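Dear colleague,

Thank you for sharing your sequence with our group. We've completed the structure prediction you requested, and as agreed, I am returning the results in plain text so they can be pasted directly into your records. Please verify that the sequence below matches your submission; if there's any discrepancy, let me know and we will rerun it promptly.
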Amino acid sequence: MGKGKAKRGIPSKEDDFNSWYPFIVEAAELVDKRYPIKGMDVWRPYGWRTMKLIDALTHREMERTGHEEVNFPLLIPESLLDKENALVARLKRAREEGVDPDDLRDEEEEGGFKKEVYWVKHAGENELDIPMFLRPTSETAMYTMFPLWIRSHKDLPLKLYQMVNTFRYETKQTRSFIRVREIHFFEAHTAHADEDSASRQIAQDLEIVDNLMHDLCLPIIKAKRPEWDTFPGAWYTIAIDAIMPNGRTLQVASCHHYRDQWAKAFDLTYENLEAQQQHCHQTTYGMSERLLGAVVGMHGDDNGLIMPPAIAPHQVVICPMIRKNSDVDTVAKAEEVAAILRNAGLRVKVDSRDIHAGQKYFDWEIKGVPLRLDIGPRDIENDSAFAAKRTGGKEPLPLANIVDECNRVLDEIAVELRARAARHTENVVLQLSSLEDVEDGKIYEMAFDGTDSHAETIERTTGLSFLGDATDPYSEERPCFMSGKPTTRRVLLAKTY
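Please find the predicted structure tokens below.
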């Protein structure tokens, strides 16, 4: 780390990511962690605006794919949690015993979220007859209502989503955006006529993931979780893991295919074309503020954040060079340019503070503003602005064509961030050649068609976790790493958050 950076107090991202990350989150004024409840950070304006811009990208995808937005109550009665626990416990037992879940009865066994929820047991001085809890997610709340809304095949598919706060009693060490107790959460819940229709929804969800990650410039892995790591209420789970700069993975989203398992538990049926009652098939797709944590971790550097242009609260910051006794009004010119850019749809901030230019540069650098325009007397004379890209590089931009020029440069910044992400993925994902020779900070792939016992041996020996089967298998068969059996399955392993 250079002396200048050391004076700023920014830890080295490469040498000490675990110190760099929490420092940047607060120094860039995304959140304030000093609220007196552990794991419940206060969103500051800059961080909340960034999160809302991520949400806006999600809203756009939901509108495009025919989802409708809802808002369910925060409180859920205990009876619904008991119903979910009984279902999850039964499905888990069926999976372990290799039998049809319908052949088993519900038993008193804890499953689901019971140990993670926050309870509400009093209203004022009165003890509630039925305790309630703060939603950890919304399956039970939503699926109580779905049977009231779905009667026939004409009501399908039902595609709903909401953006809400969820609550989980996280006992591990908390970390802003990555592991918190109050979570800014997106969840889409769908109901379909049959398994094939639900499967097509999962494919659409993964297409939505690709579009969002393109805008966020994030390198990700999409993998079907191994059976032992699949939510017991799901037939299968596809998880989306962001690759962090230290080689660990961070699950930022997941898609669950439920088949008709939840529909049977909640008596969710519809009248089909033959006038017969049939259970719906369901899916969920969830994401959280971990998306922002991945953006911070992946794109930042030793000078601060680097915001992808699609979610930057200020895509362009204009810094007028203020000179005492100058005949040129650089502030007025900066405001004029800002108005032109805003009219073209760009998010622009004019920093007209009468402070040293270096302090302005530092403030916007640490917040990751993609593009800075400096406008001084000489720039005005040349009818240009001097542009500095947060990814590196400087050039004058003609004011006569400033909108097109700014859009061009912002596109270049996004392309550069994606290129860096691609290079990072290429450098961090390796072929597993030996269980003993595992390098820290790397993700491994291998051909695998072995047993659970084989998987346990690999995890125990390497210290890595199975992410599951990559959604893009090998194009040709390869020998399984453990058994030698030919397979196209491409299984991924990593250390996870």
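Summary note from our side: The CA atoms of residues 251 and 373 lie 36 Å apart.

Kind regards,
the structure core
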